Structure formats: C-alpha cells, structure tokens
TrEMBL record:
<dbReference type="Pfam" id="PF13692">
    <property type="entry name" value="Glyco_trans_1_4"/>
</dbReference>
<keyword id="KW-0808">Transferase</keyword>
<dbReference type="InterPro" id="IPR050194">
    <property type="entry name" value="Glycosyltransferase_grp1"/>
</dbReference>
<protein>
    <submittedName>
        <fullName>Glycosyltransferase family 4 protein</fullName>
        <ecNumber>2.4.-.-</ecNumber>
    </submittedName>
</protein>
<dbReference type="GO" id="GO:0016757">
    <property type="term" value="F:glycosyltransferase activity"/>
</dbReference>
<keyword id="KW-0328">Glycosyltransferase</keyword>
C-alpha cells in the first residue's frame, strides 16, 4: 500500500532523540520492509502542555494550514491508500488525518493510541474527543502494550496487538562483558526520567562489591542527575549522549542493564540492551513488563521499592551462572520475538486485513 505516516507528538525527523522518535522511525522501516511505500505526511508537532483552549485553537490553525498543503499535494500526486497515525492521545491529537481521510475517502489506522477515562471529563475532554473520533472510525487500532489495549477496549473499539520491537542488527556483536560493569542509557529530563535516575542512585548505595556504572544520556536535568550520583564518586561514569554504534559498543561490555522505568510506555532501550546480551533489572511498573520477561531475561522488582531493587542487582552480580543464563535468554528474546523483521511480518498481516 501507499501509506502516509504522521506522528503528531514527535516527527521521525525531530532533532531531539527519544523513544517516540525511535519507534516512529522503526514503524516506517517495518512498513518498508514489508513492501509498502511509506512517506512522512507532515512534521507538524501537536503537543498541548495544558488543557488550554488557546493552545488547542493554535494547534487547529496550524493543522488547517497543513491540511491545505497536503490536499493540494494529493490532488496533484494522488492520495495514499492509508493514513497511519502514530501515538495520538489527549495531549497530542491528530488534527490533520481525519479531515483529509474523509475528504479523499482514505482509510486510516492508529498505532500506540491511548485513551483514559479520567481525561474524558473535565479540562482535557475536548482534546481527547479528537482522539476518540479517530479511534472509532479507524480501520485498525494497533496497541503496543496491554495497558493501552485495555484502555481502547474500555472505549469499545477493536484492538490489534503488536509487541514493542527494535532493530537488533546494531547490537549483534559478540558480548564482551566486564564483571561488575553496569550500564544505563536514558535521556535526562525532569519528571519520570529524573525520578528513575534518583531511584537508581539510591539503590546503588546499597549494592556492595566491586562494580561501576556507565551512564549514556544527556538532557536538561543532567545537573540533577549528576548530583544524585555524586556520593558514589568515580564508580559512576557519565558518557553523555552516544550515537547508536557507540551505545552498542558500551552495551557489549556490560554485565547488567539497570533502569527503574518510572512511567515508561515500554522502554526500547531495555530491548536494545537485551539484544546486546544484557539482563535487565527494572521495576514492575507502567509498560516495562512488555519488554522484560521477569525471571527469564531480567528481574522486575516492586514499584518504588529501593531495597528490593538493590537486592536484585546484588543477587545477579553475585551469581554469574544465573546472569549468563538470563543474558542468553535476553538475546534470544530480543533477536527473535522482538526484531524489526518479525514486526514487519506482524504489521503486514494487520494491514492485509485493512485492505480487504
């Protein structure tokens, strides 16, 4: 099919790295791998920081200009067969696709849409209504997590499942783990990211033995992150933001991947770490269980329990045989069940039903 992809929260071409940008890019690659012709429809970002009518009106005005531009383009070059919107939700509704799809008779679908009953009333209701209309008229709604699927099912719309996936190719080099080398990779932002960093810093103070932590990542909250780990001294090394080859090389030398995962939609970095052969220690929270098999490819500890997290890390550091079994299972899981190639097949089977 000819597919127009739109990611209102963050375009695949956005300059700032994030899980959203990575997944949007992966979706485009998976669709192309399945034989579809995929083009980015628009790079207009719609992110409503607050339920403010003025912000919503501004977003609608910007969207109207994009609708005019794309309408002209489609009349000259032909409309696509499918409009695919990635990650629409109440703060980031698709204000472009539904209008164009009605106008041109084009089918539309969503990936990683979410709906919250709490946001269906009150200040966010109008913005969420934009998402509800799209979900109810979509040819397919594809959920990456059980949590999102449950929300859409509560709304009464059909859901297809596609597990989170990564491109494992950059992480295929043979692991060269260094005993006691712990690795973390995450952006440094206020909110959930900073909360995870602070929880990790508190937990590591309770982990005995000879270990060191390498942190890959950067962002506006870096001073707060560095302050949280300062008491651990030179055992913690900050590498800054790394490109993919650099990150793959760092992971190849790790023995464990650590990230509490507060508020994570799922956590693509944890899948990349497993592809590189690192067991993951995270919390049993948010969408993390979608990417870590507790007791097999890593350990999930109770949400917010710093002592339990520290004990999990300590236990794996002290048990090389168990850690090696998990490393093998982690690599098999990521490279088999969660690969880009497998996702392309699953996504294509979903779209095949849309075409009928």
């Amino acid at each position: 099919m000819r597919i127009a992809l739109y990611a209102p929260l963050k375009s695949p071409d956005h300059p700032v790295p994030s899980g959203d940008r990575t997944m949007a890019r992966l979706l485009m690659r998976a669709l192309a791998l399945a034989g579809h012709e995929v083009r980015l429809a628009s790079d207009l970002r719609v992110f409503l920081k607050a339920p403010d009518q003025g912000l919503l009106n501004d977003a609608r005005s910007a969207a109207a200009a994009e609708i005019t531009r794309i309408d002209r383009l489609w009349r000259m070059q032909g409309a696509p067969e499918l409009w695919l919107c990635y990650h629409p939700y109440y703060k980031s509704p698709d204000l472009i696709g539904p209008v164009l799809c009605r106008r041109f008779g084009v089918a539309h679908a969503t990936v990683e849409a979410s709906w919250s009953r709490r946001r269906n009333l009150g200040d966010w209701a109008e913005a969420q209504s934009e998402v509800v209309g799209m979900l109810k008229s979509a040819a397919a709604n594809v959920s990456l997590t059980a949590r999102d699927a449950a929300g859409l099912e509560a709304l009464g719309v059909g859901v297809r499942r596609l597990p989170p996936f990564v491109d494992v190719a950059p992480f295929m080099a043979a692991p060269r783990p260094v005993a006691g080398h712990l690795v973390t990779a995450a952006m440094m932002r206020p909110g959930d990211k900073l909360s995870s960093y602070c929880a990790l810093a508190r937990a590591l103070g309770r982990v005995p033995g000879d270990w060191r932590l390498s942190i890959a990542g950067d962002g506006p909250a870096r001073p707060e992150v560095e302050a949280a780990f300062a008491y651990l001294g030179p055992r913690v090394v900050f590498h800054g933001q790394l490109d993919q080859p650099q990150l793959a090389a760092l992971l190849a030398q790790g023995s464990l991947y650590l990230w509490p995962g507060h508020g994570e939609a799922f956590g693509l970095a944890a899948l990349e770490a497993q592809a590189a052969g690192l067991p993951v220690v995270s919390e049993n929270t948010a969408g993390v269980p979608e990417v870590v098999q507790d007791g097999e490819t890593g350990l999930l500890t109770p949400e917010g329990d710093v002592s339990a997290y520290a004990a999990a890390v300590t236990g794996l550091l002290a048990d090389p045989a168990r850690r090696e079994r998990m490393a093998v299972a982690a690599r098999r899981f990521a490279q088999g069940e969660r690969s880009l190639e497998r996702a392309a097949v699953l996504l294509d089977s979903i779209l095949e039903k849309v075409q009928r």
